[in-house]
Write a structure and sequence with these properties.
2,3-Dihydroxybiphenyl 1,2-Dioxygenase, domain 1; about 270 residues; 2 domains
């Protein structure tokens, strides 16, 4: 997370996803890939002697950020991190511990942009919490070529429901057909989803995945693979939801793209 100056920012109620951040092995390569795929512009900001934090923008609005992992993070997998807005990072981190979560980075200030912590839930999925200062999060979300959805894949949905409902006050709405899927509600807002990891998915660790909205799933899939992405799930339809695909970028970070049906676009 970092300072964005006077850029347009959205407001995020506590318990809603507010930011996405890519930790990558090749910052230049990642900027090129996502820039060509989604039309993002990269704005580099030095944040230390050997580190650059890159804000990613669409039409001048923040869509997320990336940074190149240094030696200290060499054992951290290349991944997209999901941030959840909170009123108090310290209170939520302490509560997460009491509920069986692990705080892998205790709350710390990111200059005057905000205060954050990194938590692993009791099922093994990592996420970040963000107490906004000058930076609230996304400047644009839910539009084509921006983040539209966050989804937890886990081996223990019951334990996850217990943890997140107590930590953020989320309500879990689970549907049974065609396969069991849980939607997380934060008040009246649909904030994310959850699925049980199935044997046919392969060796997938518990994690929070990120979906980017696109105008045409097949066209974006073809473009991503032409740019060096690897297909994990080729384009397929989810009845009454949309058409999606799961990809791995050239540096090894997984992400999903989705073209939602009009009904689901209205609901977001």
């Amino acid at each position: 997370m970092s300072e964005t100056g006077a850029q347009t920012q959205l407001e995020f109620a506590p318990g809603t996803f507010c930011w996405a951040e890519l930790a990558t092995t090749d910052g230049q390569g990642a900027k090129k890939f996502y820039g060509e795929l989604f039309g993002w512009e990269a704005h580099d900001m030095p944040v230390g002697p050997d580190m650059v934090y890159t804000m990613l923008k669409l039409d001048g609005k923040d869509t997320g950020a990336l940074y190149q992992k240094g030696e200290m993070m060499k054992d951290v997998p290349t991944h997209w991190a999901s941030y959840i807005s909170v009123a108090s990072a310290d209170e939520v981190a302490a509560k997460a511990k009491s509920l069986g979560g692990t705080v892998v980075k205790e709350p710390f200030d990111v200059m005057d942009a905000g205060r954050m912590a990194v938590i692993i839930d009791p099922t093994g999925a990592a996420f970040c919490i963000w107490q906004p200062g000058k930076h609230t999060g996304f400047g644009i979300k839910g539009q084509p070529n921006t983040v539209s959805w966050n989804e937890l894949l886990t081996n223990d949905t019951a334990r996850a429901i217990d943890f997140y409902s107590k930590l953020f006050g989320w309500v879990a709405n689970t549907h049974g057909a065609p396969m069991e899927y849980t939607e997380w509600m934060n008040g009246a807002e649909h904030v994310g989803g959850m699925m049980q990891i199935r044997p046919d998915m392969g060796p997938v660790p518990p994690h929070w995945g990120i979906y980017f909205a696109v105008d045409d799933c097949d066209a974006s899939f073809a473009k991503a693979t032409s740019l060096g992405a690897r297909a994990l799930v080729p384009p397929m339809d989810i009845e009454n939801v949309g058409r999606f695909s799961v990809l791995m970028d050239p540096q090894g970070a997984a992400f999903s793209i989705i073209k939602l049906t009009p009904h689901h676009e209205e609901k977001k």
